[in-house]
């Protein structure tokens, strides 16, 4: 059995320690610098993102819808620069890495067309701005108040307290109804009265009711009433007036109940739908035709 040469083993350890020390003397400062650069860059990216969000939140002249997307783009842009700088600090040739990242980005882009379409849709939504943060929108498939427009998706809250996370492409490719964009909104109501009632008097009752409501606006037009339809069992009166967007539902619900009460107080009858049935006896039978209402 061979006896290990202690002197030779000690020489090998000494050589290894010398090489390790020489490598550490050269590489360790670069490694520590790269770690510090990455930590500081990561912190700075987060700080910049939070600062931009705060800036957009306090600036009334800037659309707050842009805040989330701009902050996210700035954060990721800083992180990309930090990573390239860290690689350069480690002595890695960044030119070839950037070329490789470009090729990889193209391949990833082809594989993630849906994600890129969401980004493109988000940029178009921010550019054309069919809605802003705080608007209530309806696309036919989703409806809610816009809380945030992100780079990939938007956050909406429905009227019944449901959180909605909607990809931007689904918002961009749909017809958008924005209920909050315009300052005023038309209140359109229908009331049914009996044929024996005076339709002109009924219109005046509704017109006086709308004109006395302080939430009803005179611009863009004064309240108006007219006979809208003659159904088999009733005369349909229509009341149209304008209200501020924020007061729409208050005016709509208020005039609906008050209109019914005002017409009844004026002696008007609100008829119920009726249908007349005609019973015909069987052929050869003795039964006469009968009418039933």
Written overview of the protein:
It is a single chain. The protein is an alpha+beta fold. It folds into three domains: 8-111, Helix Hairpins, CATH 1.10.287; 130-178, Roll (SH3 type barrels), CATH 2.30.30; 184-265, Alpha-Beta Plaits, CATH 3.30.70.100. Helix content is 51%, strand content 19%. The chain is built from seven helices and eleven strands. It has helices spanning 6-58, 65-89, 94-111, 113-128, 168-172, 199-211, 248-265, and strands at 136-138, 143-149, 153-157, 163-167, 177-178, 184-193, 216-217, 224-230, 235-244, 277-279, 290-292. The strands form three sheets. It has a five-stranded antiparallel beta sheet with strand order 4-3-2-1-5. Strands 6, 7, 8 and 9 form a four-stranded antiparallel beta sheet that branches. Strands 10-11 form a two-stranded antiparallel ribbon. A hairpin with a 5-residue loop joins strand 3 and strand 4. The mean pLDDT is 82.
Query: What structural category do the secondary elements indicate?
Result: alpha+beta
Task: Describe the oligomeric state of these chains in a short phrase.
Answer: single chain
Strand order of the largest sheet: 4-3-2-1-5
* Helix-strand pattern: HHHHEEEEHEEHEEEHEE
Number of domains: 3
Q: Can you tell me the CATH topology of the largest domain?
A: Helix Hairpins
| CATH hierarchy class name of the largest domain | Mainly Alpha
Shape: elongated
Write the layout of secondary structure elements.
Elements lengths: L5 H53 L6 H25 L4 H18 L1 H16 L7 E3 L4 E7 L3 E5 L5 E5 H5 L4 E2 L5 E10 L5 H13 L4 E2 L6 E7 L4 E10 L3 H18 L11 E3 L10 E3 L1
Antiparallel strand pairs: 1-2, 1-5, 2-3, 3-4, 6-9, 7-9, 8-9, 10-11
